[in-house]
Amino acid sequence: MKYRNFPMVPRVVFGSDSFLQLGEILMPKRKNSEAPFIFLIDDVFEAHELVSKIPLLFHDQIIFISSEEEPKTAQVDILVEKIKETYSELPSGIIGIGGGTLLDLAKAVAIMLTNNGKASEYQGWDLVKKQAVYHVGIPTISGTGAEVSRTTVLMGPEKKLGINSDFTPFDQVILDPNLTVGVSKEQWFYTGMDCYIHCIESLNGTYLNAFSQSYGEKALELCKEVYLNDIPESESRDKLMMASWHGGMSIAYSQVGVAHAMSYGLAYVLGVKHGIGNCLVFQYLEEFYPEGVKLFKQMQEKYQIELPKSVCANLTDEQFDTMINVSLGLEPLWENALGEKWKNIMTYDRLLQLFKKV
Ligand code: NAD
Ligand code: ZN
Fold first, then answer.
1. What ligand has the least distance to the C-alpha of 70?
2. Which amino acid residue places its CA nearest to atom 30 of ligand 1?
3. SS3 for 8?
4. Hey, which end of the chain has fewer CB within 10 Å, N or C?
5. Tens digits of residue pLDDT in 57-89
6. Best substitution site from 68, 104, 262 to test ligand 1's pocket, by max atoms within 8 Å of Cβ?
7. Whose CA is nearest to atom 21 of ligand 1?
């Protein structure tokens, strides 16, 4: 048995208003006045007071990016080209501020600034050869675990797949729960449920081990406190931020499962976003995760979250076919969920019937 030797985020700050320490954290990482810090920020913050607190110096630049669509490999290539054209030197660092979309973009841009070719060539496992530019992740919504993970999930020309590598994790993360204050109830639910589903899929998977379990159980406990107990809002923000972190750590050493495999298919064909996509499929997965789905429905009821219906109603056979192939292509997810003989359990037709419910 060969065990994986995987990297972790080496530095992390946690606490309300810890964001204000960003300038002090970046200063020693500044190479010179010609090597800027590039801040990739979710455009929801465009007129927000957060912008006035960004510690800009010399040629530092803010680039606002919409998270309406999930990050794409072509978008990463364009950003990298633009940065290379503008500056004579490589940036001192890339700082991603936002949800999973912006965190993943920041990781991918940092990687592609030092690795040749197109981002799509690196979708997969351990294809990155050179160390990325210094990169910092600052989540403004909790749940995906992208702040701690070893992947950056991108929509490419042929697949939705992460750049999984030892160079992907952030060099520094700032966890400031105050940054999550403005998130809408629906988005708070969808992205938080991503974390909840990470826990359920990790804890019920065949890859489970004590390492993953220890993080997964803690994250699940925190999710239950946040979504089922009526705790004060500030405590709830703190706890969900740590749930996201632990949920991400849990899957780092195991895998996700059926909901994620299906959600990737939905995203590829219909552009359904990750959080809501997971919820859309998870509600129909009681045969795989009976306890998890029961609790999910309780939480959904408590916050009166109405999920869209008949999302797959008007799909053509060809679209279903693509959706199923994208989903079945994620072999490690199925193997984790259903064991080595998963192909006998999750057949094409069974998956088709599941997608038709969504
Ligand atoms: P997101 O980043 O797309 O953001 C969701 C919405 O919340 C957006 O409209 C955004 O503008 C808004 N928002 C974010 N912070 C806000 C704030 N403080 N106030 C008001 N609005 C705010 O959503 P997400 O669920 O965090 O991330 C989804 C993405 O993460 C997907 O692309 C998915 O593939 C990726 N993901 C990556 C990993 C990983 O390990 N790398 C894991 C899971 C998901
Ligand atoms: Zn997820």
1. 1
2. 100
3. coil
4. N
5. 999 999 999 999 999 999 999 999 999 999 999
6. 104
7. 183
Give per-residue pLDDT as tens, 201-226: 999 999 999 999 999 999 999 999 99
> Mean pLDDT, to the nearest integer, of 157-173?
94
3-state SS track over 168-227: CCCCEEEECHHHHCCCCHHHHHHHHHHHHHHHHHHHCCCCCCHHHHHHHHHHHHHHHHHH
CA-141 nearest atom, ligand 1: 15
Please report which ligand is nearest the Cα atom of 152: 1
Residue 280 to residue 265: CA distance in whole angstroms? 12
Backbone φ and ψ for 310, nearest 5 degrees, come out as 50, 40
Instruction: Compute the distance from residue 191 Cα to the ligand 1 centre, in Å.
Output: 7
3-state secondary structure 302-313: HCCCCCCCCCCC
* Cα(216)–Cα(212) distance, integer angstroms: 6
Contact between 221 and 196 (Cβ < 8 Å):
no
**φ, ψ for residue 256, nearest 5 deg:** -90, -170
Which amino acid is residue 45, in one-letter code? F
